[in-house]
TrEMBL record:
Residue intervals passing through the bilayer: 20-40
Function (record text): The SecYEG-SecDF-YajC-YidC holo-translocon (HTL) protein secretase/insertase is a supercomplex required for protein secretion, insertion of proteins into membranes, and assembly of membrane protein complexes. While the SecYEG complex is essential for assembly of a number of proteins and complexes, the SecDF-YajC-YidC subcomplex facilitates these functions.
Topology of this chain in the membrane: Single-pass membrane protein
CC per GO annotation: plasma membrane
Record Pfam families: YajC (PF02699)
Protein name stated in the entry: Sec translocon accessory complex subunit YajC
NCBIfam families, per the entry: yajC
UniProt key word Magnesium: no
InterPro entries named in the record: Preprotein_translocase_YajC
Alphabetized UniProt keyword annotations: Cell membrane, Membrane, Protein transport, Translocation, Transmembrane, Transmembrane helix, Transport
């Protein structure tokens, strides 16, 4: 008496289509994850791998940029430490992991 027959009829119909709606929601979530993987995660991992290979290949005589923005010439390379000459007679030891870039010494400045 308290429940109208119209509500009872729609409740039965909604129960049969619930699994299809659930599958559509799961597929949407999977699609979003796949898009994020190919647009964000995969390129970032590739960039990190390339950067690590570049830093591991540092050799004596290369010009490098440290994490603090100092530019210098590599004088000595050890396993995880690099000795960088910032000016004549001024040498510092830096971790390889803090090197941000290897500078091409033949490149011209951007403003010339």
């Amino acid at each position: 008496m308290l429940i109208s027959p119209a509500y009872a009829q729609t409740a039965g119909a909604a129960g049969t289509g619930g699994s299809a709606a659930f599958m559509i929601q799961i597929l949407q979530l999977l699609l979003i994850f796949v898009v994020f993987y190919f647009l964000i995660i995969r390129p970032q991992n590739k960039r990190m791998k390339d950067h690590k290979a570049k830093i591991d290949a540092v050799k004596k005589g290369d010009q490098v940029v440290t994490g603090g923005g100092l530019i210098g010439k590599v004088v000595k390379v050890e396993d995880s430490v690099v000795e960088v000459e910032l000016a004549q007679g001024v040498k510092v030891r830096a971790l390889k992991s803090t090197l941000t870039d290897i500078v091409d010494p033949t490149a011209k400045p951007a403003n010339d």
